[in-house]
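Morning run. Coffee first, then this:
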Amino acid sequence: MKYTDHVIGFSDHGIRRLKWIAPMTSERFDRGLSLLRHLKSTQLLLLVELGKVASLRKAASALNMTQPTATKLIQDLEAAVGHPLFERSSRGMRATPYGEVMIRHARLMQIEIVRTREDLDSLSSGASGTLRIGAVISAVPFLLAKAVAALKREHPGLQVSIDAGTSDALVGSLLNGHLDVLLARPIVLGDRNDFDYVDLIDEPLKVVGRRDHPLASRSSVTVRELGEWPWTLLPAGSPMRKVLAPVFAEMRLSGPQNIVETSSMMTMVALMHESDMLAVMPGDVSDFYIRHNLLVEIPVTLPAVMGSYGIVTRRDRPMTPGVEAFLTQLQTALQEQRRIRAELTSDG
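And here it is:
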């Protein structure tokens, strides 16, 4: 065995090994090396271009090579792979299933080479690598912010970027190599086997509005009454909108009719500040704005429909030291979150 990979997870005692993933046998490793020896950088670049334009002439032109040269490169690659990669027709080049696999991995290899260059440049300037995190907005105010702040204190040279958005929008970025690790909801993963998922935390949903909203002074509000008010919501099709369907059904509507859609929580806050709009936010996000006197919670009880979010990683990609360091800090922040919630429950 020349290579093996593992998944890490959380327990009350910290990071733990969960399972071994597809150990690399000697035969598989040797076959992979054999293909690597036959690959040329120009072939990889040509595959990426063909994935974009599906035209050998246009792909060759983009790479400043002649069409016969491009044809020979593809023929040599098909011979090395042992399968036809493209179907030729008057309409251009259409990738076969084997070609689609090669194009996908060529793109990933291109991204990894770019990342290698970035890490080298980062190291030469005194930094210590890069870490690209994707996260649902729910994770930002507490878990993510605390974990990244602690990570930067321990590794000030690590270059960290954060892409906050909805789970469905971010999972593609993880798959194509633009993100290293993702905090997202499992609802978008389905039964796909491209990813490993480790549950982190369940969270409630809260309805919020501006501080002097007419409903804020009420002792209680029914879910059905909420349908009469304007709303600002995440876009249709987002995981939160999907899990809110039972709530909207209770309003005897397909959902709020007077709405403004946005993927930005800051935009939601601004809209609520200027109007009687309501919004549904995950507990940690709403608590952050309530604590800073920007919003108030509307006294209505929502069903527990949001569920959890957790760590999503690519199954076929080993974790970098930056990812492992981030997950260690994430575990510390999670333990602190649990301690605070336990104290609040005890005080209540």
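Residues 1-9, 11-24 have pLDDT under 50 and may be disordered. Good start to the day.
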